[in-house]
Amino acid sequence: MHLRMASPPQPGPYMPDLPAVPAWLNKGDTAWQLVAATFVGIQSMPGLVVIYGSIVKKKWAVNSAFMALYAYASTLIVWVLVGFRMAFGDRLLPFWAKAGPALTQDFLVQRAVFPATAHYGSDGTLETPRTEPFYAEAALVLFEFEFAAITLVLLAGSLLGRMNIKAWMAFTPLWLLFSYTVGAFSLWGGGFLYQWGVIDYSGGYVIHLSSGVAGFTAAYWVGPRLKSDRERFSPNNILLMIAGGGLLWLGWAGFNGGAPYAPNVTATVAVLNTNVSAATSLLTWTCLDVIFFGKPSVIGAVQGMMTGLVCITPGAGLVHTWSAMLMGMFAGSVPWFTMMILHKKSTFLMKVDDTLAVFHTHAVAGILGGVLTGLLATPELCALDCPIPNMRGVFYGSGIGQLGKQLGGALFVTVWNLIVTSAILLCIGLFIPLRMSDDQLMIGDDAAHGEEAYALWGDGEKFDVTRPETTRTGGAGGAGREDTMEQRLTNMGARVSRVASHGLLQSIQTITSVDEKK
Predict the structure, then answer these.
(1) Which of the listed residues 11, 38, 59, 312 has the most CB atoms within 10 Å of its CB?
(2) Where do the structural domains in the chain lie, given as residue ranges?
(3) What is this structure's pTM?
(4) Rounded mean pLDDT of 492-506?
């Protein structure tokens, strides 16, 4: 009997010990984290870019979209230079980590790790080891960047329609370094709020509360829009706004589904709860609009969707789905009340021109979600994801202490953002005007960028009122003739009319031919 020796494994994708797949790397975890990062990125690019470009007046479409675009790009560069390790590196202070680059192969191909997240008991014994996901550091750098970027993009919503774009370009890197990294390390990276037991599953405080408070603070220092813009700021394209809102909603699957750093049970619960809360909040907001104003508002529905997504974020993977529905009801009613009733009765709130009401949709909804999470988080789901043993909501036996921690965390994030945002803008204001001049505000995009979102005359030709009263145009035999301003308007209008007439004629001919065939 002859024994056949097994042939050595052939090179291929299923070989053991592939050079690019070390023993600690899980391909499924890596794939999901990259997909989740892309989902969150789509929320900003193009989601919020589209929303901002469409929800504002036509004359501000380009500027508003560009503020989001610039914030996204600038955040990435600052993030890999020093920001990531300030938020998720080795502990420097109770609220800050040591700065350092995330640019070299030696750092990026190693196993991802949160160095400061080990939790020790009161007697000094290790209760929870530090978090070490099963993928490379590069995936974590990318994922956490998307969260940092969308925070600044959301903040921009408070400042649309008047902030000097040069001041915004200076503001974004400074705010990222001195505000965002502090909140991220304190609550996620192993800082004092993380160790204390404040629950912020996926950014109700780090992202939404901070962007809402910082945006409101910045709106105060920058100053208001023109009176005419504040009184009438109609969206230039509601359909595009809905499309951008849809990208934001679906992208939240990566936002909350990627927070456990693995495609596990917690991630699936979080994604389901996210959608349930968003839908419930949208319906609640819409019903309130109908009850009090007699008709549903599409803009209101998008705002209700947003508050539902924000409210569930602090506890998406930690609560029952019926709790997510309850949170959605609160998310669709409490921010509605603060925006529609309380805001209009407060002299101070009316004075501060928060363009897209980011304070209500993100700060109010973020605190609301944090408080409700402190009440509704279940011990079973907390055991799967939370770093502190025996964490749970008040309704499941934690006592009032957990609610106090949630409020304490919200207070720290609020105060820090108020102080740091004010300091940054006051410093920038010494060198660059924070607000555009009234003359520029009258014009809008063309004054800020020399570009406009929509062509007004023919094939992109715009009528320039600054040109002389008459212009010379070529005549027969090379002779010139002068056209008055009125003639130029008439000629340009005639071209548009000819195009419209030609289209109308084609439509009539098509209808006639169909009738003849019948």
Answers:
(1) 312
(2) 27-449
(3) 0.85
(4) 46
